Protein 1
Amino acid sequence: MPGVGGVKAANYLASIAPHDGTTLHMIMSNMMSSEAIGAQGVQFDTRKFFWIGNTTSTPNVTVSWYKSGVTTIDQVKARELIVGAPGGTAGVIYVTAMNGLLGTKFKLVTGYPGGNEVNLALERGEIDGRASNSWAAWKSTHPDWVKDRKIVVLVQIGLKRAPDLKDVPLLFELANNDMDRQVLTFLSASARAGDVPGHAGRARHRAAAGLRCNHARSRIPRRSRQGAVGYRSDERRRLPEDRRLDRQYAACCRGRRQRTEDRGQTTEDRRQRTDDRGQIWKRSL
């Protein structure tokens, strides 16, 4: 669902999509900061998203094209650098923050429908850099550009430097005072959303352990097995839910223990226990 750099999809997840775990959203890294600064069009609360995880822990990076002649962030403070970004994405926020707090002279060009169009404009020479993209994405989609040094990383947006970018500064390291550092650290932390497993991680581990036996697969609902989780409007509608998975996992363990006990008993013993359960069920009617 394209639109406004992921904001449209996030709004749909929060307001329209069923809150039963059947709808997923590959959330953009700027969603938290967009909500915090009151960006136009935001109608969701990221605190109510049930996080599954983060596809990568590498930082986002702002890059220049090798033909631009710009190789450091300090040079952008002295001369203008035209960079592109799809409207509403993290790059718009990063560049705006750097211009306002660090004194850089980025000229931002938006209106691109996606990152591929920005890369094409970069290759054609229409712009001199890209405002933001994951470092892992650059290495996987354009390894030749990285190898041939056609893109030059000016700054990393994250809380920790990438091992292969040790000489490139982090965004918050460039702050001129404590207040600016706090703002830039907040923006940098947004790129790590979903990294901390918390109760969602523990629930997934318990579910994964239970799914190792066929008995669990028959007891746990299909949509719970898929681990599809999304926006939660209240604690009882979360999926998967800690207490609910606890009960399912405990039931699975009881079933496995019962089957283990059955193996040590005779056929007559098992038949008698089955008859007893049937009598109890009939009396309960």
Protein 2
Amino acid sequence: MESTSSSTHTETTTVPVTQDYVLPPAAHAAALWSGLGLVTLLILAGYVISRRQKHKVLLGDGEVPEMTRATRVFGNATEYLPAGMAALVAMAVVGVGAWVVHLVGALLIAGRVAHAYGLSRSEGASPGRMAGIGLTFVAFLLAALALIFHGLF
């Protein structure tokens, strides 16, 4: 007795490798603001380096108030920018509108620049620091709400 096996073949559609993939506008917005966030970090790192050279402090703050402020300026930016940039990318991935990504990115960068300026000028409360905190928190709140909304619906 001869056995015949019938195999079923299912055709799948594949996308040719040569086809160009077009990124959504939100991805471009996230790339723009994340890039500006990295530039902000580089500028602030340069600020710390210049203060180190000025005061001849290789490690820590050397108990120089200007060095303490400079390292906190950079430290504060490193505490908020990475999370904000991750939120920008996450918003682009889940399909949040490009205008929302631009708004959050602009608030985030403006907030961190304002905070850095205010803190670099004064150890105490200053308009720059207060504006920076407010703008950063609004950016985080908008990003959180957009991500939660897109996660639920």
